[in-house]
Design goal:
heterodimer, B: mainly alpha, Ammonium transporter fold, 0% strand
């Protein structure tokens, strides 16, 4: 089941809910005072997310379109209640330190977002793995933020003293402003790494990875696919390979095809499209592109290269 | 027709005012307060100032190296470092002072585009960062030259203070804020050079005095009001930090509003807040509202009515 692995990677890296989608900011900023809290919150959310995704996906043909949001909420709330009772029973301390943020998982926008954009229009198994991937991505992000804040704010990690005695805790990192600083710094760091790897030829395509191939029921109004009415092939792995081959030296042999694809290329230019393939193309038919060289977007979002999709 | 309307083709006559010149003027104007701080608190004050300035300048230099755009020569980092040092107590551990300098440049100033783009006064933001991070260190005003609480803390506790000492600077406090006389000398230099005008400091101080008179609980007692005016960082803040070119409103009306807002906020923080001091929080809060002040006082273009409609329609 290649699809499942792709969903996991998608949740962990490409569409990491915290660092890329910027969802669920409330628990991210509020409970990450220590690595343990971050880990606990992340795993709790992951459990709820995976289960609610699975069940929403199973029930997706029964739930009427108009009342889908209340239906989602009922499903999610049931799981949250169950998880909270389990936490109270088996991990009372964690439950105490997370406090009100456990019941608030019901309104966590990651869960509702995944239900709406993925689980409601996809089969159960990919939905389950989407939930696990997103949940783990959230967990990793929260644990990282919590760890940095705990080290700087109290000189400990998971409760163990890490810093020498002469270290004086920087108290602001235990408070709300510190959460913003750490979140911003870590987001910038992962963008930097992705930019570096992108220029080394790795693909971090964002659009399309959560695509249900049904533009009619999709809420992503800014999607390129919707713009051009393009069909999603969903085969990301093979696409990447092809992209790499092309870079390695397939420039000349693919020339005709590229010319053919240029119709779309021109359309794309009006939208300021950017992507790796674009640059090669610009060298070939010199001067067609006018937005030259702006292909390192700061939004971490690479527009889909349409002509490649066509081949 | 006024000569102003006739714009010839280039080259134009260029103003002699430069960023470097302004920054140099500010540094010179800060010298009396700095000198008095070193005289009053001893050589350790000099060490704190040197470390802070070095950390801001070095951070800006390294940032410039990374981004391949060197801006360190405009002296603004020196001003930031110096202002930050003047806002620190003399007992501060040197690494905390250096951390403040790094924070001012690396977090508050450069990521937003450097000088001219920072939305908040870097020195004050760094001071507040340190105040939240190391509350006990930042309010530890005990040193060899001076022991005891700051005059503002005494005033808040309802005890007597000596206003003459406060004006001359023979009291406890941060390195640069103690001597009102030295600060006023520096402010006069800036006023005479035309680097700042009295709009912001004037409206700030007058509003604050009125606020303290009304809500201070002692009526318009000249002794109490003058003690409040001379105490803490009010003078340093009003003349050197509220007037920062980057983080103040550019319209004249906006500057008055800004000064009034700062006066009100400082009064609220000092009288109703838990701490004795509130100048730095008031100013960074004011910095955040600058776009609103500017929007409210946007000048009407010639021939237009307020709100954008053309006159006569």
């Amino acid at each position: 089941m290649n699809r499942a692995g792709e969903r996991l990677l998608n949740g962990l890296v490409k569409e990491n809910p915290t660092f890329v989608l910027m969802l669920g900011m409330c628990p991210t900023l509020a409970v990450t005072t220590s690595a343990m809290n971050g880990l606990g919150m992340g795993l709790t959310t992951a459990a709820v997310l995976a289960l609610s995704n699975l069940f929403i996906s199973l029930l997706r043909k029964i739930i009427p379109d108009r009342v889908r949001i209340p239906a989602f909420i009922v499903i999610i709330a049931s799981f949250v209640t169950a998880v909270q009772l389990l936490l109270e029973g088996y991990l009372p301390e964690l439950n105490k330190s997370l406090g009100v943020y456990i019941p608030l998982i019901v309104v966590n926008c990651i869960i509702l977002g995944r239900a709406e954009s993925f689980a409601y229009s996809n089969p159960p198994i990919p939905s389950l793995f989407d939930g696990i991937g997103m949940g783990l991505g959230f967990t990793v992000a929260l644990t990282c933020i919590g760890a940095v804040r705990e080290i700087l704010g109290s000189g400990e990690l998971f409760g163990y003293g890490l810093m020498p005695d002469s270290f004086e805790p920087i108290r602001i990192f235990g408070q709300a402003p510190g959460a913003f600083f750490v979140l911003a710094a870590l987001t910038a760091l992962q963008n930097l790494i992705k930019e570096k790897r992108k220029s080394a030829g790795k693909s971090y395509r964002k659009i399309g990875s959560g695509c249900s191939e049904d533009c009619g029921s999709c809420s992503d109004m800014g999607c390129v696919r919707r713009f051009y009415g393009e069909k999603q092939t969903g085969k990301q792995g093979s696409r990447d390979k092809r992209q790499n081959e092309e870079r390695d030296g397939g420039q000349d042999e693919n020339r005709d095809e590229r010319r053919k694809g240029n119709r779309d290329g021109k359309q794309k230019e009006t939208r300021g499209g950017r992507g790796k393939g674009d640059r090669n193309e610009g060298q070939d038919d010199g001067g067609v592109r006018q937005d030259g060289g702006r292909d390192t977007g700061t939004d971490g979002l690479e527009y889909v290269d349409l002509e490649e999709e066509e081949r | 027709m006024s000569g102003l309307y006739q714009v010839s083709s280039n080259p134009h006559i260029r103003s002699k005012v430069t960023t470097n010149g302004i920054m140099l003027a500010v540094i010179v104007a800060l010298m009396p307060a700095t000198g008095y701080g070193i005289y009053h608190f001893g050589s350790r004050a000099l060490a704190v100032i040197a470390v802070t300035v070095a950390s801001t300048v070095l951070t800006e230099y390294l940032y410039g190296l990374c981004r391949k755009k060197m801006t360190v020569t405009d002296l603004s980092a020196v001003v930031t470092g110096l202002l930050l040092a003047l806002n620190l107590p003399v007992t501060i551990p040197l690494w905390i002072a250096a951390l403040g300098g790094v924070f001012a440049i690396l977090v508050v100033k450069m990521p937003f585009g450097g000088l001219g783009q920072n939305f908040m006064n870097p020195a004050l933001a760094a001071r507040c960062f340190l105040l939240l991070s190391f509350p006990t260190r930042m309010t530890d005003f005990q040193c060899d030259a001076w022991t005891g609480a700051t005059p503002l803390a005494l005033l808040k506790a309802g005890e007597k203070v000596n206003v003459t000492d406060m004006v001359l600077g023979n009291v406890g406090g941060t390195i640069g804020e103690t001597s009102v006389a030295a600060i006023v000398v520096g402010a006069c230099i800036l006023l005479l050079l035309g680097v700042i005008d009295l709009r912001i400091p004037g409206s700030y101080i007058v509003t604050f005095a009125l606020f303290v008179g009304i809500f201070g609980g002692r009526g318009f007692d000249p002794y109490y009001i003058s003690a409040q005016l001379a105490g803490g960082g009010l003078m340093l803040g009003a003349f050197f930090m509220a007037t920062d070119y980057v983080t103040r409103p550019i319209t004249a009306g906006g500057q008055y509003l800004y000064g009034i807002f700062l006066g009100l906020m400082t009064g609220i923080f000092r009288i109703f807040g838990p701490g004795a001091e509130g100048v730095s929080y008031a100013i960074i809060l004011g910095n955040l509202l600058v776009p609103l002040f500017e929007k409210a006082t946007k000048p009407v273009a010639f021939g237009y009515k307020r709100g954008g409609a053309r006159r006569g329609k």
